[in-house]
Amino acid sequence: MITWLQGEVIDKKQWCADLYSIRIKLEVDLPFIAGQFVIVGLDYKGAKIHKPYSLINAPEDDFLEVHLNTVQNGKFSPLLTDVIKGDTVYISNKPSGLLTLEEVPDGVKNLWLCATGTGIGPFLSILHTDEPWQRFNNIIVCYSTKTANEMAYRDDFEALAKRYPEQFHFLPFITREQTPDAIHSRLTTFLASGDLEKQLGLSLKPDSNHVMLCGNSSMLDDATQILEQKGLRRHSRQHPGNIAIEKYF
Length: 249
Hints:
Elements: E1 4-16, E2 19-26, E3 37-44, E4 47-54, E5 64-69, H1 77-81, E6 88-92, E7 110-116, H2 121-127, H3 131-135, E8 138-145, H4 154-163, E9 168-174, H5 187-193, H6 195-200, E10 209-214, H7 217-229, E11 243-246
Parallel strand pairs: 7-8, 7-10, 8-9, 10-11
Antiparallel strand pairs: 1-2, 1-6, 2-5, 3-4, 3-6
Helix pairs in contact: 5-7
């Protein structure tokens, strides 16, 4: 049984045809850890329908933000992207998820955050906190979208690159068009070939790296297989490893 907290839509941004970000103000505070997700609910035909979404914002912000695309013929996402300022939405009171820095073992030097599409959400939340910049020598974001218009929050990453020029490495991947400021390749292809490590001058050795993956299922499966071939292993609370995955969409 989900316990719901009532919230109000305070802002909505449309990035391109089917891509949105929505900000929500709750009536009460909701403590969470950067990288976690919540269940977002709406009233529909006398009942609540719902879906999980990662929180984009930092825990200290006084609003919640989710990033989503409209799925054609979907039951929930078209309703959520139709909300307007002042509308009521509901948020589950128990955030959860494995994509948090609490799950990263001590001794890790390089944190890899690899996402496709709206899977970039939990990593934005993490990067807007102080902890990663205090813990890791290198933070690498590999962010893949089909087109340049779909690469939301790019200004945030470019600002981080200016603020932490030696520590932060941002690699944008755009798969369906060529642009001068992005890699025209699938992220997994670049990873499998070894070009990713060569470009950064870093080696994905198990003893000093932790990789977080969030996005479409084919990327998660392919990237996990490639990383396992390099000696990394899946992470769980029962069996700590080097590869953390959030698979809820």
